[in-house]
Amino acid sequence: MAILFLFLYLLANSLSLYGDAFIGVNIGTDMTDMPSPTDIVTLLKAQSIQHIRLYDADRAMLLALAHTGIRVTVSVPNDQLLGIGQSNATAANWVARNVIAHIPATNITAIAVGSEVLTSLPNAAPVLVSALRFIQSALVAANLDQQIKVSTPHSSSVILDSFPPSQAFFNRTWDPVMVPLLKFLQSTGSYLMLNVYPYYDYVQSNDAIPLDYALFRPLPPNKEAVDANTLLHYTNVFDAVVDAAYFAMSYLNFTNIPILVTESGWPSKGDSSESDATPDNANTYNSNLIRHVLNNTGTPKKPGVAISTYLYELYSEDLRLGPLSEQNWGLFYANGAPVYTLHLAAAGTVFANDTTNRTFCVAKNDADTKMLQAALDWACGPGKVDCSPLLQGQQCYEPDNVVAHSAYAFNAYYQKTGKSPGTCDFKGVAIVTTTNPSHGSCIFPGSGGKNGTIINGTTLAPSLANSKDSSSLSQFYKVGSFSTILIFITSILSAFVVL
Protein backbone atom coordinates (compact mmCIF):
# COMPACT_ATOMS: atom_id res chain seq x y z
CA MET A 1 0.00 0.00 0.00
CA ALA A 2 2.88 2.36 0.78
CA ILE A 3 4.24 1.77 -2.73
CA LEU A 4 0.84 2.64 -4.20
CA PHE A 5 0.70 5.91 -2.28
CA LEU A 6 4.19 6.81 -3.48
CA PHE A 7 3.17 6.04 -7.07
CA LEU A 8 0.11 8.28 -6.82
CA TYR A 9 2.25 11.03 -5.28
CA LEU A 10 4.76 10.82 -8.12
CA LEU A 11 1.98 10.80 -10.73
CA ALA A 12 0.32 13.85 -9.20
CA ASN A 13 3.60 15.76 -9.32
CA SER A 14 4.36 14.81 -12.90
CA LEU A 15 0.90 15.91 -14.06
CA SER A 16 1.18 19.23 -12.22
CA LEU A 17 4.17 20.23 -14.35
CA TYR A 18 2.08 20.48 -17.50
CA GLY A 19 -1.28 21.75 -16.29
CA ASP A 20 -2.66 25.26 -15.93
CA ALA A 21 -0.37 28.13 -15.04
CA PHE A 22 0.19 28.81 -11.36
CA ILE A 23 1.38 31.67 -9.19
CA GLY A 24 4.03 30.96 -6.56
CA VAL A 25 6.14 33.09 -4.25
CA ASN A 26 9.84 33.36 -3.44
CA ILE A 27 10.82 33.32 0.23
CA GLY A 28 13.98 35.26 1.05
CA THR A 29 15.68 35.35 4.44
CA ASP A 30 17.61 38.65 4.60
CA MET A 31 15.45 39.95 7.43
CA THR A 32 16.07 41.26 10.92
CA ASP A 33 13.16 39.34 12.43
CA MET A 34 12.77 36.28 10.24
CA PRO A 35 9.48 34.52 11.03
CA SER A 36 9.74 30.93 12.22
CA PRO A 37 9.12 28.18 9.64
CA THR A 38 5.83 27.38 11.40
CA ASP A 39 4.68 30.99 11.10
CA ILE A 40 5.68 31.09 7.44
CA VAL A 41 3.70 27.96 6.68
CA THR A 42 0.72 29.37 8.57
CA LEU A 43 0.81 32.46 6.33
CA LEU A 44 1.15 30.33 3.20
CA LYS A 45 -1.88 28.28 4.18
CA ALA A 46 -3.92 31.36 5.06
CA GLN A 47 -3.17 32.82 1.64
CA SER A 48 -3.79 29.49 -0.17
CA ILE A 49 -0.30 29.61 -1.67
CA GLN A 50 0.52 26.22 -3.16
CA HIS A 51 3.88 26.91 -4.85
CA ILE A 52 7.00 28.37 -3.24
CA ARG A 53 10.66 28.75 -4.07
CA LEU A 54 13.36 28.66 -1.41
CA TYR A 55 16.82 30.09 -2.02
CA ASP A 56 18.35 27.16 -0.17
CA ALA A 57 17.15 23.86 1.27
CA ASP A 58 16.73 24.82 4.91
CA ARG A 59 15.93 21.69 6.91
CA ALA A 60 13.62 23.39 9.42
CA MET A 61 11.64 24.99 6.61
CA LEU A 62 11.32 21.72 4.72
CA LEU A 63 10.14 19.93 7.86
CA ALA A 64 7.54 22.64 8.49
CA LEU A 65 6.27 22.17 4.93
CA ALA A 66 5.81 18.43 5.40
CA HIS A 67 2.28 17.10 4.81
CA THR A 68 1.03 20.49 3.57
CA GLY A 69 0.99 19.53 -0.11
CA ILE A 70 2.69 22.84 -0.96
CA ARG A 71 4.93 22.37 -4.00
CA VAL A 72 8.49 23.40 -3.18
CA THR A 73 11.43 24.44 -5.34
CA VAL A 74 14.65 24.10 -3.37
CA SER A 75 17.90 25.74 -4.44
CA VAL A 76 21.60 25.07 -4.52
CA PRO A 77 23.07 28.39 -3.28
CA ASN A 78 25.72 29.98 -5.47
CA ASP A 79 28.38 29.48 -2.79
CA GLN A 80 27.90 25.69 -3.06
CA LEU A 81 27.87 25.55 -6.84
CA LEU A 82 31.59 25.09 -7.47
CA GLY A 83 31.81 22.09 -5.16
CA ILE A 84 28.75 20.39 -6.65
CA GLY A 85 29.78 21.18 -10.22
CA GLN A 86 33.16 19.49 -9.76
CA SER A 87 32.09 16.38 -7.84
CA ASN A 88 29.40 13.84 -8.61
CA ALA A 89 29.70 12.54 -5.04
CA THR A 90 29.18 16.03 -3.57
CA ALA A 91 26.07 16.48 -5.73
CA ALA A 92 24.71 13.08 -4.69
CA ASN A 93 25.28 13.91 -1.04
CA TRP A 94 23.46 17.24 -1.45
CA VAL A 95 20.46 15.52 -3.02
CA ALA A 96 20.40 12.81 -0.35
CA ARG A 97 20.52 15.33 2.48
CA ASN A 98 18.26 18.05 1.08
CA VAL A 99 15.79 16.20 -1.12
CA ILE A 100 15.57 12.45 -0.57
CA ALA A 101 15.51 12.89 3.22
CA HIS A 102 12.30 14.96 2.90
CA ILE A 103 10.43 13.07 0.14
CA PRO A 104 7.53 12.31 0.02
CA ALA A 105 6.36 14.14 3.18
CA THR A 106 7.54 17.43 1.71
CA ASN A 107 6.37 17.98 -1.86
CA ILE A 108 9.64 18.95 -3.58
CA THR A 109 9.03 19.41 -7.31
CA ALA A 110 12.09 21.26 -8.61
CA ILE A 111 15.72 22.10 -7.87
CA ALA A 112 17.12 25.48 -8.91
CA VAL A 113 20.88 25.13 -9.28
CA GLY A 114 22.40 28.51 -8.47
CA SER A 115 20.83 31.86 -9.31
CA GLU A 116 21.72 34.12 -12.24
CA VAL A 117 25.10 32.41 -12.39
CA LEU A 118 26.15 33.73 -15.81
CA THR A 119 25.72 37.36 -14.76
CA SER A 120 26.41 37.28 -11.02
CA LEU A 121 28.99 34.48 -10.64
CA PRO A 122 30.66 34.09 -14.06
CA ASN A 123 33.65 32.21 -12.63
CA ALA A 124 31.28 29.32 -11.85
CA ALA A 125 29.76 29.28 -15.34
CA PRO A 126 32.13 26.55 -16.66
CA VAL A 127 30.79 24.05 -14.08
CA LEU A 128 27.11 25.08 -14.22
CA VAL A 129 25.98 22.39 -16.65
CA SER A 130 28.07 19.77 -14.85
CA ALA A 131 26.30 20.70 -11.62
CA LEU A 132 22.91 20.21 -13.26
CA ARG A 133 23.96 16.86 -14.70
CA PHE A 134 25.35 15.62 -11.38
CA ILE A 135 22.15 16.66 -9.55
CA GLN A 136 20.08 14.96 -12.26
CA SER A 137 22.14 11.76 -11.98
CA ALA A 138 21.45 11.63 -8.24
CA LEU A 139 17.71 12.02 -8.89
CA VAL A 140 17.80 9.28 -11.53
CA ALA A 141 19.52 6.95 -9.06
CA ALA A 142 16.75 7.65 -6.55
CA ASN A 143 14.02 7.24 -9.20
CA LEU A 144 12.92 10.86 -8.63
CA ASP A 145 13.91 12.38 -11.98
CA GLN A 146 10.41 12.29 -13.49
CA GLN A 147 8.76 14.43 -10.83
CA ILE A 148 11.62 16.70 -9.72
CA LYS A 149 12.91 18.96 -12.48
CA VAL A 150 16.37 20.50 -12.50
CA SER A 151 17.20 23.89 -13.99
CA THR A 152 18.93 27.19 -13.21
CA PRO A 153 17.41 30.70 -13.08
CA HIS A 154 18.78 33.29 -15.50
CA SER A 155 18.62 37.06 -15.49
CA SER A 156 16.78 38.33 -18.55
CA SER A 157 19.92 40.39 -19.25
CA VAL A 158 21.48 37.29 -20.86
CA ILE A 159 19.13 38.10 -23.77
CA LEU A 160 20.37 40.82 -26.12
CA ASP A 161 18.37 43.00 -28.53
CA SER A 162 15.18 41.93 -26.81
CA PHE A 163 12.83 44.17 -28.79
CA PRO A 164 11.43 43.41 -31.14
CA PRO A 165 11.32 39.94 -29.54
CA SER A 166 11.81 38.20 -32.90
CA GLN A 167 15.34 39.65 -33.11
CA ALA A 168 16.41 38.55 -29.63
CA PHE A 169 19.38 36.27 -29.05
CA PHE A 170 21.42 35.08 -26.11
CA ASN A 171 24.71 36.84 -25.42
CA ARG A 172 27.06 34.84 -27.68
CA THR A 173 29.73 34.98 -24.97
CA TRP A 174 27.72 32.34 -23.13
CA ASP A 175 27.14 29.95 -26.06
CA PRO A 176 29.59 27.36 -24.62
CA VAL A 177 27.32 27.20 -21.56
CA MET A 178 23.90 28.01 -23.00
CA VAL A 179 23.89 25.43 -25.81
CA PRO A 180 24.70 22.40 -23.60
CA LEU A 181 22.36 23.81 -20.96
CA LEU A 182 19.45 23.94 -23.41
CA LYS A 183 20.30 20.42 -24.59
CA PHE A 184 20.12 19.28 -20.97
CA LEU A 185 16.76 20.97 -20.40
CA GLN A 186 15.37 19.48 -23.59
CA SER A 187 16.57 15.96 -22.82
CA THR A 188 15.21 16.01 -19.27
CA GLY A 189 11.88 17.66 -20.07
CA SER A 190 12.71 20.60 -17.84
CA TYR A 191 12.11 24.32 -18.34
CA LEU A 192 14.16 27.44 -18.81
CA MET A 193 14.02 29.40 -15.57
CA LEU A 194 13.94 33.12 -16.22
CA ASN A 195 13.79 36.17 -13.92
CA VAL A 196 11.61 38.86 -15.50
CA TYR A 197 11.60 42.37 -14.03
CA PRO A 198 9.68 44.94 -16.12
CA TYR A 199 10.43 47.45 -13.33
CA TYR A 200 14.12 47.48 -14.29
CA ASP A 201 13.33 47.51 -18.02
CA TYR A 202 11.14 50.54 -17.40
CA VAL A 203 13.61 52.38 -15.16
CA GLN A 204 16.54 51.78 -17.51
CA SER A 205 14.67 52.71 -20.69
CA ASN A 206 15.06 56.49 -20.29
CA ASP A 207 11.31 56.97 -20.76
CA ALA A 208 11.22 54.84 -23.91
CA ILE A 209 8.92 52.37 -22.13
CA PRO A 210 5.61 53.85 -20.88
CA LEU A 211 4.75 53.09 -17.26
CA ASP A 212 1.36 51.66 -18.28
CA TYR A 213 3.13 49.23 -20.63
CA ALA A 214 5.25 47.96 -17.73
CA LEU A 215 2.28 47.69 -15.33
CA PHE A 216 -0.04 45.67 -17.64
CA ARG A 217 -2.43 48.61 -17.86
CA PRO A 218 -4.67 48.57 -20.96
CA LEU A 219 -3.25 50.41 -23.95
CA PRO A 220 -5.16 51.73 -26.97
CA PRO A 221 -4.37 49.69 -30.11
CA ASN A 222 -2.29 52.50 -31.59
CA LYS A 223 -0.07 52.48 -28.49
CA GLU A 224 0.64 48.74 -28.48
CA ALA A 225 4.14 47.67 -29.45
CA VAL A 226 4.22 45.72 -32.71
CA ASP A 227 6.98 43.37 -33.79
CA ALA A 228 7.49 44.36 -37.43
CA ASN A 229 8.90 40.93 -38.30
CA THR A 230 6.00 38.88 -36.94
CA LEU A 231 3.24 41.53 -36.68
CA LEU A 232 2.59 40.30 -33.15
CA HIS A 233 1.12 42.95 -30.83
CA TYR A 234 2.57 43.36 -27.33
CA THR A 235 0.51 45.01 -24.60
CA ASN A 236 3.03 44.61 -21.78
CA VAL A 237 6.75 44.28 -21.10
CA PHE A 238 6.41 40.90 -19.36
CA ASP A 239 5.14 39.12 -22.48
CA ALA A 240 7.76 40.80 -24.65
CA VAL A 241 10.62 39.58 -22.43
CA VAL A 242 9.25 36.03 -22.25
CA ASP A 243 8.81 35.90 -26.03
CA ALA A 244 12.33 37.28 -26.48
CA ALA A 245 13.55 34.22 -24.56
CA TYR A 246 11.49 31.92 -26.80
CA PHE A 247 12.95 33.54 -29.92
CA ALA A 248 16.48 33.42 -28.47
CA MET A 249 16.09 29.68 -27.90
CA SER A 250 14.70 29.14 -31.39
CA TYR A 251 17.71 31.03 -32.80
CA LEU A 252 19.78 28.17 -31.33
CA ASN A 253 17.29 25.60 -32.74
CA PHE A 254 15.50 24.84 -29.47
CA THR A 255 11.75 25.26 -29.95
CA ASN A 256 10.10 23.00 -27.39
CA ILE A 257 11.52 24.10 -24.03
CA PRO A 258 8.89 25.74 -21.78
CA ILE A 259 9.65 28.82 -19.71
CA LEU A 260 9.13 29.14 -15.96
CA VAL A 261 9.38 32.68 -14.58
CA THR A 262 11.21 32.24 -11.28
CA GLU A 263 11.09 35.90 -10.20
CA SER A 264 8.92 38.88 -11.05
CA GLY A 265 7.54 41.76 -9.03
CA TRP A 266 7.62 45.50 -8.34
CA PRO A 267 9.04 47.39 -5.32
CA SER A 268 6.64 49.30 -3.07
CA LYS A 269 9.15 51.89 -1.84
CA GLY A 270 12.33 53.48 -3.14
CA ASP A 271 14.71 56.35 -2.55
CA SER A 272 14.40 59.80 -4.11
CA SER A 273 15.58 58.54 -7.50
CA GLU A 274 13.05 55.70 -7.55
CA SER A 275 9.81 57.65 -7.77
CA ASP A 276 7.85 54.81 -9.39
CA ALA A 277 8.59 52.35 -6.58
CA THR A 278 5.27 52.94 -4.80
CA PRO A 279 2.65 50.76 -3.08
CA ASP A 280 0.11 51.64 -5.77
CA ASN A 281 2.40 50.62 -8.64
CA ALA A 282 3.49 47.45 -6.82
CA ASN A 283 -0.14 46.60 -6.20
CA THR A 284 -1.08 47.29 -9.81
CA TYR A 285 1.78 45.26 -11.27
CA ASN A 286 1.43 42.21 -9.03
CA SER A 287 -2.37 42.15 -9.21
CA ASN A 288 -2.32 42.40 -13.01
CA LEU A 289 0.50 39.85 -13.26
CA ILE A 290 -1.40 37.31 -11.15
CA ARG A 291 -4.55 37.82 -13.20
CA HIS A 292 -2.60 37.58 -16.48
CA VAL A 293 -0.86 34.34 -15.48
CA LEU A 294 -3.92 32.60 -14.03
CA ASN A 295 -5.98 33.43 -17.12
CA ASN A 296 -3.65 31.15 -19.11
CA THR A 297 -3.47 33.66 -21.94
CA GLY A 298 0.16 32.82 -22.63
CA THR A 299 2.14 35.25 -24.80
CA PRO A 300 1.68 36.52 -28.37
CA LYS A 301 4.21 33.95 -29.65
CA LYS A 302 2.84 31.11 -27.49
CA PRO A 303 -0.87 31.86 -26.89
CA GLY A 304 -2.49 29.59 -24.35
CA VAL A 305 0.85 28.16 -23.18
CA ALA A 306 1.16 28.42 -19.41
CA ILE A 307 3.74 30.87 -18.06
CA SER A 308 3.79 29.95 -14.39
CA THR A 309 5.41 32.66 -12.30
CA TYR A 310 6.89 33.09 -8.82
CA LEU A 311 6.34 36.51 -7.28
CA TYR A 312 9.31 38.25 -5.75
CA GLU A 313 8.67 38.04 -2.85
CA LEU A 314 6.68 36.91 0.21
CA TYR A 315 8.42 39.15 2.79
CA SER A 316 10.25 42.45 2.41
CA GLU A 317 13.92 41.85 3.26
CA ASP A 318 15.16 44.80 5.30
CA LEU A 319 18.79 43.59 5.34
CA ARG A 320 19.32 43.59 1.58
CA LEU A 321 22.05 45.92 0.36
CA GLY A 322 21.70 48.50 -2.37
CA PRO A 323 19.05 51.17 -3.02
CA LEU A 324 15.99 51.39 -0.79
CA SER A 325 13.87 49.53 -3.34
CA GLU A 326 15.93 46.37 -2.73
CA GLN A 327 14.39 46.13 0.73
CA ASN A 328 10.81 46.61 -0.40
CA TRP A 329 9.69 43.92 -2.84
CA GLY A 330 7.66 41.93 -0.31
CA LEU A 331 3.92 41.35 -0.14
CA PHE A 332 4.18 41.14 3.66
CA TYR A 333 6.30 42.58 6.44
CA ALA A 334 8.19 40.21 8.76
CA ASN A 335 5.36 40.33 11.31
CA GLY A 336 2.86 39.07 8.74
CA ALA A 337 1.15 42.40 8.10
CA PRO A 338 0.43 42.99 4.39
CA VAL A 339 2.43 45.76 2.74
CA TYR A 340 -0.66 46.44 0.62
CA THR A 341 -3.81 44.51 -0.22
CA LEU A 342 -3.78 43.12 -3.73
CA HIS A 343 -6.59 44.01 -6.15
CA LEU A 344 -7.65 40.45 -6.80
CA ALA A 345 -11.43 40.28 -6.65
CA ALA A 346 -12.62 37.20 -8.59
CA ALA A 347 -9.03 36.18 -9.38
CA GLY A 348 -9.17 32.84 -7.59
CA THR A 349 -7.99 31.71 -4.20
CA VAL A 350 -4.43 33.04 -4.29
CA PHE A 351 -4.21 35.99 -1.88
CA ALA A 352 -8.01 35.77 -1.55
CA ASN A 353 -9.45 39.21 -2.33
CA ASP A 354 -9.08 42.92 -1.83
CA THR A 355 -12.32 43.80 -0.03
CA THR A 356 -10.73 44.63 3.30
CA ASN A 357 -7.50 44.61 5.22
CA ARG A 358 -8.57 42.35 8.06
CA THR A 359 -5.67 41.20 10.18
CA PHE A 360 -5.28 39.87 13.71
CA CYS A 361 -2.48 39.83 16.27
CA VAL A 362 -1.73 36.53 17.99
CA ALA A 363 1.01 34.93 20.07
CA LYS A 364 3.88 33.24 18.29
CA ASN A 365 3.76 29.46 18.57
CA ASP A 366 7.37 29.19 19.74
CA ALA A 367 7.34 32.19 22.12
CA ASP A 368 8.76 31.87 25.63
CA THR A 369 5.89 31.32 28.09
CA LYS A 370 7.37 33.67 30.69
CA MET A 371 7.59 36.47 28.14
CA LEU A 372 4.05 35.70 27.01
CA GLN A 373 2.79 35.90 30.59
CA ALA A 374 4.53 39.24 31.12
CA ALA A 375 3.06 40.61 27.89
CA LEU A 376 -0.38 39.28 28.83
CA ASP A 377 -0.18 40.98 32.23
CA TRP A 378 0.76 44.25 30.57
CA ALA A 379 -2.03 44.08 27.97
CA CYS A 380 -4.68 43.38 30.64
CA GLY A 381 -3.18 46.04 32.95
CA PRO A 382 -1.39 49.13 31.64
CA GLY A 383 -2.57 48.26 28.11
CA LYS A 384 -6.17 48.75 29.30
CA VAL A 385 -7.52 45.77 27.33
CA ASP A 386 -10.88 44.34 28.40
CA CYS A 387 -9.76 40.85 29.40
CA SER A 388 -13.04 39.88 31.07
CA PRO A 389 -13.80 37.26 28.33
CA LEU A 390 -10.72 35.36 29.64
CA LEU A 391 -12.14 34.91 33.15
CA GLN A 392 -13.20 31.44 34.24
CA GLY A 393 -16.62 30.58 32.90
CA GLN A 394 -16.48 33.24 30.18
CA GLN A 395 -16.47 32.58 26.44
CA CYS A 396 -12.68 32.80 25.88
CA TYR A 397 -11.48 31.05 29.05
CA GLU A 398 -10.92 27.77 27.20
CA PRO A 399 -8.36 26.68 26.30
CA ASP A 400 -6.89 27.72 29.64
CA ASN A 401 -3.27 28.38 28.70
CA VAL A 402 -1.04 31.41 28.33
CA VAL A 403 -0.74 31.11 24.53
CA ALA A 404 -4.49 31.21 23.93
CA HIS A 405 -5.12 33.94 26.49
CA SER A 406 -2.22 36.03 25.18
CA ALA A 407 -3.56 35.74 21.64
CA TYR A 408 -6.90 37.21 22.72
CA ALA A 409 -5.33 40.03 24.74
CA PHE A 410 -2.73 40.89 22.08
CA ASN A 411 -5.38 41.06 19.39
CA ALA A 412 -7.71 43.15 21.55
CA TYR A 413 -4.90 45.69 22.04
CA TYR A 414 -3.98 45.60 18.35
CA GLN A 415 -7.57 46.24 17.26
CA LYS A 416 -8.12 48.90 19.94
CA THR A 417 -5.13 50.90 18.71
CA GLY A 418 -6.32 50.76 15.10
CA LYS A 419 -3.62 48.27 14.07
CA SER A 420 -1.03 51.00 14.36
CA PRO A 421 2.55 50.03 13.43
CA GLY A 422 4.37 48.40 16.34
CA THR A 423 1.19 47.47 18.26
CA CYS A 424 1.60 43.78 17.45
CA ASP A 425 5.04 43.05 18.79
CA PHE A 426 5.01 42.70 22.59
CA LYS A 427 8.80 42.36 22.68
CA GLY A 428 8.85 39.86 19.84
CA VAL A 429 6.28 37.33 21.07
CA ALA A 430 3.38 38.41 18.82
CA ILE A 431 2.75 38.18 15.09
CA VAL A 432 0.17 39.50 12.63
CA THR A 433 -1.96 36.92 10.85
CA THR A 434 -4.75 37.02 8.29
CA THR A 435 -6.33 33.88 9.77
CA ASN A 436 -9.26 34.61 12.07
CA PRO A 437 -8.26 33.11 15.47
CA SER A 438 -11.85 33.01 16.77
CA HIS A 439 -13.01 29.62 18.00
CA GLY A 440 -16.33 28.33 19.24
CA SER A 441 -18.13 31.06 21.18
CA CYS A 442 -14.88 33.04 21.58
CA ILE A 443 -15.09 35.78 18.95
CA PHE A 444 -11.91 37.82 18.67
CA PRO A 445 -12.12 41.61 18.31
CA GLY A 446 -11.90 42.61 14.67
CA SER A 447 -13.83 39.61 13.36
CA GLY A 448 -17.39 40.57 14.26
CA GLY A 449 -19.73 39.10 16.87
CA LYS A 450 -20.95 40.11 20.29
CA ASN A 451 -17.51 40.53 21.85
CA GLY A 452 -15.80 41.66 18.67
CA THR A 453 -15.59 44.79 16.58
CA ILE A 454 -17.64 44.68 13.40
CA ILE A 455 -15.61 45.26 10.25
CA ASN A 456 -17.36 45.33 6.88
CA GLY A 457 -16.25 42.95 4.17
CA THR A 458 -14.76 39.50 4.17
CA THR A 459 -11.48 38.21 5.47
CA LEU A 460 -8.34 39.22 3.61
CA ALA A 461 -7.36 35.63 2.91
CA PRO A 462 -9.65 32.92 4.25
CA SER A 463 -8.39 29.38 4.29
CA LEU A 464 -10.16 27.05 1.88
CA ALA A 465 -11.58 25.08 4.77
CA ASN A 466 -13.47 28.11 6.05
CA SER A 467 -14.32 29.79 2.78
CA LYS A 468 -17.99 30.23 2.02
CA ASP A 469 -17.31 31.93 -1.30
CA SER A 470 -18.60 29.66 -4.03
CA SER A 471 -16.46 31.21 -6.76
CA SER A 472 -13.30 30.64 -4.70
CA LEU A 473 -14.30 27.07 -3.99
CA SER A 474 -15.10 26.36 -7.63
CA GLN A 475 -11.69 27.77 -8.58
CA PHE A 476 -10.09 25.54 -5.98
CA TYR A 477 -11.75 22.41 -7.33
CA LYS A 478 -10.86 23.39 -10.86
CA VAL A 479 -7.20 23.89 -10.01
CA GLY A 480 -7.01 20.95 -7.66
CA SER A 481 -9.28 18.52 -9.49
CA PHE A 482 -6.61 15.84 -9.70
CA SER A 483 -5.90 16.14 -5.98
CA THR A 484 -9.62 15.71 -5.30
CA ILE A 485 -9.69 12.57 -7.44
CA LEU A 486 -6.53 11.33 -5.72
CA ILE A 487 -8.12 11.71 -2.29
CA PHE A 488 -11.20 9.87 -3.52
CA ILE A 489 -9.17 7.00 -4.97
CA THR A 490 -7.06 6.77 -1.81
CA SER A 491 -10.21 6.57 0.33
CA ILE A 492 -11.61 3.75 -1.76
CA LEU A 493 -8.35 1.83 -1.69
CA SER A 494 -8.06 2.28 2.05
CA ALA A 495 -11.57 0.95 2.53
CA PHE A 496 -10.77 -1.99 0.26
CA VAL A 497 -7.70 -2.90 2.31
CA VAL A 498 -9.73 -2.76 5.53
CA LEU A 499 -12.34 -5.07 4.03
Commentary on this structure:
- By secondary structure, the chain is of the alpha/beta class.
- The protein has two domains: 2-327, TIM Barrel, CATH 3.20.20; 360-433, no CATH class.
- Helix content is 35%, strand content 11%.
- The protein has helices spanning 2-16, 37-46, 59-64, 81-85, 88-100, 117-120, 128-141, 175-188, 198-203, 211-214, 237-251, 279-294, 369-380, 402-416, 470-479, 481-498; strands at residues 23-27, 51-54, 71-76, 107-113, 149-151, 153-155, 159-160, 169-170, 192-195, 225-226, 233-234, 259-264, 309-311, 360-363, 430-433.
- The chain has a nine-stranded parallel beta sheet.
- Helix 7 (128-141) packs parallel to helix 8.
- The longest helix has 18 residues, at 481-498.
- It is globular.
Task: Summarize the structure in short.
This protein is α/β, with parallel strands linked by helices and 499 residues long.
Largest sheet: 9 strands, parallel
Quaternary form: single chain
Structural class: alpha/beta
| CATH class category of the largest domain | Alpha Beta
**What would CATH call the architecture of the largest domain?**
Alpha-Beta Barrel
Q: What is the CATH homology-level superfamily of the largest domain?
A: Glycosidases
Q: With helices defined by DSSP (H or I, 4 residues minimum), what is the helix count? A: 16
Strand residue content: 5-15%
CA radius of gyration is 24 Å
Q: If strands are numbered along the chain, what order do they take across the biggest sheet?
A: 5-4-3-2-1-13-12-9-6
Low-confidence stretches: 1-18, 345-349, 352-356, 449-499
Distance between the termini: 14 Å
**What coarse outline follows from CA principal-axis ratios?**
globular
Query: What would the CATH topology of the largest domain be?
Result: TIM Barrel
When the domains are counted, the total is 2
Number of E-type strands? 15
Mean pLDDT: 83
The helix content is 25-40%
